Amino acid sequence: MARGSFNDAESRQTEAVLRRFNQVFITHNPAALAELVADDCIIENTQPAPDGSRHEGKDACVDLWTRIATTSGVHFEPESIIARGDRGEIRWRLIWGPDRLDSVRGVNLMRVRDGRIVEVQGYIKGP
Known about the structure:
7 strands, 7-stranded mixed beta sheet, 28% helix
């Protein structure tokens, strides 16, 4: 996986949080979400177009990500993580079938505060 993070302490902490977050989806195990998500977290999800759904608060965000992480028949392939201060970017591919056409690439733009995720905007390539 490509790496492009800065080397200051805040960037390293952000990168560590994003790597732990990624593991939730790679392993299909949402247990770490409770300690990774801030009480005031806000997600702007990838769907539905044009703006995506908005999820506010820890419970709503953990619930959404738990459902995504545990969805049968889909998996994420991480492409890269970049961290700059409290901001981070995770590029990924979501795969739901055997053919390359059964996938979509996307990116999460994220913000971390005090070791917890506070803001996420998700985007995908596709209709």
